[in-house]
Amino acid sequence: MVMADRPEVPTANLSLSAIAVVGLAQNMVTGLAKVPFRQPLHGVLSPLENVAAATTRQVVRTFMGYSSSLPVEEFRSIELVLDRLSRVVLPPWVRLRRGVDRSTGEIAGVPGIWLRPRGVTPRATILYLHGGGYIGTSPEMYTAWVSTLVAGTGAEAFVPDYRLAPEFPFPAGVDDARAVHDALRPRAAGGVLVVAGDSGGGGLATSLVEDLDERGEPGPDGLVLLSPEVDLDLDDPSISENATSDILPWNIPVSPYLRGVDPADHRVSALHARVDCYPPTIVVSGGAEMFRDSVRRLVTRMDEEGVAVRAVEVDGVFHVFPILLPWSHCAKDVVGRIDEFVDDVIDSAQSHIHASRLARSRSRNNP
Predict the structure, then answer these.
(1) Is residue 166 within 8 Å of residue 135, measured between CB atoms?
(2) Which of 156, 203, 271, 274 is the most exposed place for a label (fewest CB within 10 A)?
(3) Is residue 152 part of a domain?
(4) Sign of the C-alpha dihedral computed for residues 7, 10, 14 and 18 taken in this order
(5) DSSP assignment, residue 135?
(6) Is 48 inside any structural domain?
(7) pTM of the predicted model, to two decimals?
């Protein structure tokens, strides 16, 4: 369940794949040698967490930098290896540590992974759009993180394997997300559907809400955005100011996804779209990430246009830190806030459902 599994997506041969994997390993070793272990007191976390954060930052940046330099066929081959590794390592951990069951499925022709709380009826359904800058990663790589949301909220979650660029540029991902959303909407557990996403998946979530609004279709009951990529112009001061403190590469790739579409197009950049159509939303970001300014501007616009938005910006941490630093106190705090937000969305949506049913009942009894 990764792009390389699609028959129309070419991958490198075995020799080139092996060379690419070895090259990645060598770059990882070189990158880890640069981690400033001698400076554990520098940072907003505890000394041990600072070292872990520095190590994580270097590993992720090394992977992103190396992968972006490869031909797409070799990149897909490395991605396939990581997906298969995740498939072996993560499901047992999810079952034992989170009390969450994993299964594969297909919604509206889009394959994906279901994560459900074990032994209880789900309170809601979460459509989770995984990150990866519109070009990489897979649902399998997100099972640990999404299982955390499932365990905390009591909701079930579907993580679709939506189509990625450059093989499938915009609007393929939006089309897949909309198809899954429309199929889940009438069957959502408890009648409540929440859309969530991180990084490029967060940007895709905003594109989905915009697309549904333009079509006159009902959107989700709530929106959870983690470090969303919402301005593909990439010209905010924080792009350069936080280039050394973030995990993202300095040359964030957007052209493979856009394929000629204006980065200021409202369909791909939420900062250029209407936001008054958004449902209640929580936005999480790091003060040391490159998307800091664009996320701040999005939150300001949402607040000005009457959206019920909750903003959580944590100083000194990087892009999608709750996913990459799950052991940190700041990540645990954010997870608690997301759980609380989803609880409120469920309560509000179910109150509305109850009121609607009561009104219909009264209408039938008083013709």
Answers:
(1) yes
(2) 274
(3) yes
(4) negative
(5) T
(6) no
(7) 0.92
- Burial (CB count within 10 angstroms: exposed 0-12, middle 13-18, buried 19+), residue 274: middle
182-220 pLDDT tens trace: 999 999 999 999 999 999 999 999 999 999 999 999 999
Nearest to 313 by CA among 295, 298, 297: 295
Domain of residue 293, residue span: 85-365
Residue 25 lies in a domain: no
List phi, psi (to 5°) of 230. -115, 5
97/118 Cα distance (integer angstroms) = 12
Give the residue carrying structure tokens 């579907």: 158
Angle subtended at Cα 184 by Cα 178 and Cα 187, rounded to the nearest 5 degrees:
155
pLDDT at residue 262, as a whole number = 98
Q: How far is CA 172 from CA 8, 175, 178, 208, in A?
A: 14, 5, 10, 11
- Residue 207 has what pLDDT? 99
Q: Is it true that the peptide bond before 166 is cis, omega within 30 degrees of 0?
A: yes
Give residue 127's region: left, alpha or beta (phi > 0; psi -120 to 50): beta
pLDDT tens digits for 257-279? 999 999 999 999 999 999 999 99
Q: What one-character-per-residue DSSP string does 208-228 give?
A: HHHHHHHTT----SEEEEES-
- Give CA–CA dist 126/164, Å, rounded: 21
- 143 assigned to some structural domain: yes
Q: How many domains in the chain?
A: 1
Query: Residue 354's pLDDT is what?
Result: 66
**Looking at the predicted structure, is the pLDDT value of residue 49 above 80?**
no
Q: What is the mean pLDDT of residues 324-342?
A: 96
Helix (H) or strand (E) holding 329: helix 329-365
**What are 343-365's pLDDT values in tens digits?**
999 999 988 876 766 566 666 66
149 burial level (CB within 10 Å; 0-12, 13-18, 19+): buried
Higher pLDDT, 156 or 1: 156
